What we know:
Jelly Rolls, 8-stranded antiparallel beta sheet, 5-stranded antiparallel beta sheet, 7 helices, about 20% helix, disordered N terminus
Amino acid sequence: MKISPLVLTLAPLALLVTAGHAAVASATPPFYGEPPDATHPWSIHDRNRPQPKRVEPATVSTQDKPGRPPSDAIVLFDGTAAALARWEADTKEGPPQPTKWIVKDGALECVPKSGYIRTKEHFGDVQLHVEWAAPKQVQGESQGRGNSGIFLMGLVEVQVLDNYNNPTYADGFAGSYYGVNPPLANALHPPGEYQTIDIVFRRPIYRDGQVVDPGYVTVFCNGVLLQDQTPLEGPGGHLRRSKVGPMPEKGPLKLQDHGNPVRFRNIWVRPLPPRAAEGGTDGALSPEATLAKRRQIAAEIRADAATLKADPYQQMIRLAESLIYEKDAATERAVLPQFEAYAAGVKAMPKARLEQEKNQIVNMLRILRYMARHGMVPENYAPLGTLAAIEKAQDWMPKKK
């Protein structure tokens, strides 16, 4: 009997996809982890899932020198006067005006009674890094000492205040979600030293007037957790209780003028990817979004398979892989006869050749078992039975320990 060309391909399954194809980025073999379900479009350990992008990490600041931002950060203040071009006065009406804040010794310093300052660029969900220092010479007490604020999207305030040996109302403490939630700790350095604040901010998401995700704020100060994914209850505020509700998609970052010459340095943001509730593909999705994403993944794999005509074996496996994500009659009509031809070719092989092809045959059997286990082919599928019988006859079955 003439052996099918499919059988003559010697490439092991771990190398099925050549350089340039989507799945080559992962060393995970196909048909490995549990397949997608109704709310997760990816398999467990999915080799088709996009690889995380490379980001060169930030370096740690010292009191004398700010650290380097991560490579993908948008740097809002780097210690130079030129960086003021990214900022403007927080005017309520009329055209934008230059800020009266000054750059001094590498810091952006508030000029008391000059007004808030805001970025010209607007942001939504972000990772934000800010370093601030209250005046070394202590003046005032409670809210009158080293007071400022960081306003995410110009609305949600994370309090800046010199609370080193300076008590005040708890929900107005440094690192508080002002007027809403006190910080979990007081982790401040003495006045005059820089405090390092890292914030993860997620705005609220509403759909048809109903909250889908309330949003939250997470805050670290000098490496200590202050806000632990605190749900948003509106912008916060003074004296009056903040009201839960929708917010804009984006807004400026604002820094407060509260009458104290607080200094800021090393300000940068990293815009965050969308959550599942707004089109992201990580985490549990809606059934509708999951189905759409699975169809997209299957189409991309089929398109990739179309480029593999020079290697029918690789093409067969890649097409079969698309069935993990979407049951497609045309793909089944293309792939299932190839499985049958493969099994027939293996069955016709002499014993010596079988030993040469053992790894590939065993891997094909693994694939067919996966497909049967998850309903992509019948449990009594003939090629599966043929290869299982050969495995048993050749004594290839794993030995029990």
